[in-house]
Predict the structure.
Amino acid sequence: MHQVNELEHGTIKTIEIMVTSIGFSARRNETTYANSESIDAFNASSREFTSMQCLLVKVITRDGLVGWGEAFGHKSNPATLAALGEIVCPFFIGRSSDPVTQTPAAERAFHAFGRTGPVHYALSAVDTALWDITAQRAGLPLRRLLNPEARNTITGYASLVHYGEDPIQVADQLRLAQRHGFRAFKLHESTPTAIAAARETVGRAPLMADVNCKWTVQEAEAVLTALEPLELLWMEEPVFPPDDSAGLFRLNSRHRNIAAGENHSGVRALIADMECGALAFAQPSVGKIGGVSAMFEVIAAGRRVDAAVVPHNFYYGPALLATAQLIATSAANDLPELEIPFLHWDSLLHPFHAPHQNGVLAGGSIPLPDAPGLGFSPDPQVLERSRITHRVID
């Protein structure tokens, strides 16, 4: 990793907290649903949603550098906003912008508040912004700061929202995603009928499913056995609770395709499940687990224990770019890499917001920004128009 002298880091002067809300279409045909909605309205893939919020953090140093981060998210934003405004951002004001020293200091200060949840989501956003500043100060894209041999392109896969287990709509959406250039696909369906329709549509292409902790271990065992002929690359969060290590180990020992990690309680718990073989695919989320610092720790652990790390990403702001930059620090392989929400957005916050919509996705491959830092540069007009919350902490 490229080194930046701690004395070269500027002092944090101001932190701005913003929430944007941008509308989207999931191209659903509401008249053809074969089944009623089978997920609750708190799930980000529910058809209750017609817009998505992005909780942005903008860190400004006394010497004028600006770093961006993003916290999870969605319907938990009121709690994370409170954590940012009242606890996390005030802690960082007047401190060095060096994440190597300041993120551990914050984690120690906040240790009694838990290893996941709104305070940790807030810290994730600030940590990401500090890494953005650090890479800018070094004059390097974040991926090159973390690994001088990092790649300039990665692959993306389409992450579909929930289509009510309707096989016709699932097939229609997958064909549309194929026309947009995607070569790998993730569903949020859980029935064999819907998943079989997906497999028939995409042929031998990588196909994954996220069922949002739908089953008991016994139920998951039965469904996974029935789905074996469909050769899912991974089954994501099959059981509740999502970090049921014993249950995940039991399922993965037989099926070898269990994925989880977005909702594990911090780095230690996720790495422990990677080490014991409970997961075939570890899925940390940069806006939840502790930002770039925590993500890079999980990626390093994956190399150490030979476990696949495929970050979770249902973001459209700085967290999307941070995830892409982190993926590029690892050598290319045959796995799907960057999760891209397959939505049609009313407007794009920045050029990387929707690679399938702005024309940069070709054959599933995505070129990464060459600018120093994350490469996040929001369109000022879209930011102003979509912003619904703005607070300044100094």
